[in-house]
């Protein structure tokens, strides 16, 4: 990946389009937003794969991310609370709970920040 400074933001090109990154929301995605997005979407994607491999009928997964930042340490991300809202047929809470635990161990983005960012995961079934 190559990033080019464009005055108020950095820019990079991907097959699907241009990504703008800036410390100011009016000029692009903020770096912390991209990090949280990577962790939340990776975690939810791995969870969906785990659930499907375990033959759970998943119709929809949404994930909410609540972010805690530490102002005393350069405003770094210190914690991310992920809450999954899962829709499916005949889902059993205990089986989903095990799938969430397994997915957490297999998400590369979450594992990258392990020991630095506290990630907690909860879920509700619809």
UniProtKB/TrEMBL annotation:
Signal peptide: none annotated. PANTHER family: PROTEIN YHFA (PTHR34352:SF1). Coiled coil: none annotated. This is Uncharacterized OsmC-related protein. Gene3D superfamilies: 3.30.300.20.
